[in-house]
Design brief:
Layout (H helix, E strand, L loop, with lengths): L1 H15 L4 H10 L6 H16 L1 H11 L7 H16 L4 H13 L8 H24 L4 H5 L3 H10 L4 H8 L5 E5 L6 H10 L4 E4 L3 E4 L16 E3 L7 H5 L6 E5 L5 H9 L3 E6 L2 H14 L4 E4 L13 E7 L14 H4 L2 H19 L2 E11 L8 H10 L3 E4 L14 E2 L2 E2 L9 E7 L1
Parallel strand pairs: 5-6, 5-8, 6-7, 8-9
Antiparallel strand pairs: 1-3, 1-4, 2-3, 9-13, 10-13, 11-12
Length: about 425
């Protein structure tokens, strides 16, 4: 199992050096082509878990080290091992032994006897002093919540009644939610199909089903046939809010990976243009549409530019703009440690170019749905308020929350869906051109 530790430590090390986990983990796995499926799965779990609780783990390690380690690989092995000792069910002796083995397997200069002895001593010291070490961390917010201090401060200021719950939800494992294509099968019939496959699930709203336990995508009944898609319930609110009808001309801007693109087409027979600046990401959109047996005109283009636009107005526009992704942090645990406070202003500036540019392309009486997967006000209602000041022909429309059962206790504050156990944190602003 030390191979799983080694892979995870490699991935964690890359993230702490600034690389995205979606790139770092495959790169780390590629170094161990002989790793079994079990080892690869364990490495993924360890990578996500270590980064999810990195603030807490690192705070323990700082107390245990007399001075910072100069070898990042040793540091990352210790992080992964302490995560296991804190949050995993693995036997403590086994974890320590595997960490020492992982150090032994490293190439120079770390694979020296002193390095193995150091890792062994630090981990055993952690086990002996866990309680007094833990007591010292109670006043350390970064250790307590496993978020950067600037992130904690921002949520405290913007959500005085919800910030703690938001931080806690962000450290949970995300639910696996499906969107049923009701063009092909009813929600009730698909629920029965899951039941026959012994898959426990709960329905939410008109199209969503939350699985009790995650299932590999290829094992989801009807997935390859386009009967169902994987999409968070919060994200599933976008297409219905846009409220498009048959034969309308619609733009899905910044559309990749295409979840909302497919949903729009499942709800209405519209002429849909799907725009994204990344040609490779559009391939994934096309793949999703092919699976769903739906069609859209895919275009490579910058949503902040009009170089791709043919001058014909759209009846509806979905503007799913780039953002900090702070509302989906439990799915992308590396975001907490890769983002910097200055990045918020950078995204705000980018959004401030996209929104008015797309607004020019909207027909009179048309609707634009501004969407982010962020929880920071500057990117959300703050951005919209500034836009409304500069555009007298724009009105922000109120929108009703979808009807859901007790599983999905939806809380909305000025268009912001507060992340919960059943959905991620999305912001929606529905704008109409007067």
């Amino acid at each position: 199992m030390y191979i799983s530790q080694q892979i995870a430590a490699n991935a964690v090390n890359q993230v702490l050096l600034g690389r995205n986990l979606t790139l770092a983990l495959p790169a780390a796995l590629a170094d161990f082509p002989a790793a079994t499926l079990q080892q690869r799965g364990a490495a993924q779990d360890l990578s996500y878990g270590t980064l999810r609780f990195y603030g807490e783990i690192d705070a323990y390690l700082v107390q245990l080290l007399e001075k910072p380690l100069t070898d990042n690989r040793l540091h990352s092995i210790l992080l992964v091992a302490i995560y296991q000792l804190l949050h995993d069910k693995a036997d403590a002796f086994t974890v320590v032994n595997q960490a020492v083995q992982a150090v032994s397997a490293l190439k120079r200069p770390a694979a020296k006897s002193w390095a193995k002895g150091l890792v062994n001593a630090i981990l055993r010291n952690f086990l002996r002093q866990k309680e007094p070490l833990q007591a010292k961390l109670k006043a350390n917010a970064v250790a307590m919540y496993s978020y950067p201090q600037w992130w904690i401060n921002k949520l405290k200021a913007q959500y005085p009644d919800h910030w703690q719950a938001m931080l806690e939800v962000g450290n949970q494992h995300p639910p696996m939610t499906l969107r049923v294509n009701t063009q092909k099968i009813s929600l009730d019939d698909y629920t029965q199909l899951l039941r026959r496959q012994d898959i426990t699930a709960t329905t939410i709203g008109a199209q969503a089903i939350v699985l009790a336990k995650p299932v590999a995508v290829e094992k989801i009944p009807g997935f390859t046939a386009g009967i169902v898609s994987v999409q968070d319930y919060g994200a599933q609110m976008a297409a219905p809010l846009l409220g498009m009808k048959d034969n309308m001309r619609v733009l899905d801007a910044c559309c990749a990976p295409g979840g909302k693109t497919g949903h729009i087409l499942e709800l209405a027979n519209v002429a849909l243009t799907a725009l994204d600046s990344d040609e490779l990401r559009l391939l994934r959109v096309q793949s999703n549409l092919d699976r769903l047996e739906l069609q859209a005109a895919l275009m490579v283009g910058d949503a902040a530019s009009d170089s791709w636009w043919d001058g014909k107005y759209f009846d509806g526009i979905l503007a799913d703009v780039p953002c900090t992704a702070s509302g989906i942090v439990r799915r992308h645990v590396d975001i907490k440690w890769l983002r910097r406070e200055a990045d918020v202003a950078s995204f705000v500036a980018q959004q401030a170019k996209i929104l008015p540019n797309l607004w020019r392309m909207l027909a009179k009486g048309g609707r634009l749905l501004y969407v982010t997967c962020s929880v920071f006000n500057e990117e959300n209602q703050g951005q919209v308020d500034q836009f409304l000041k500069n555009n007298a022909d724009a009105t922000q429309l109120p929108y009703p929350l979808p009807i859901a059962d007790e599983l999905c206790n939806i809380t909305q504050i000025n268009g912001q869906l507060i992340p919960s156990s059943a959905h991620d944190g999305f912001f929606y602003a529905l704008l109409q051109k007067n």
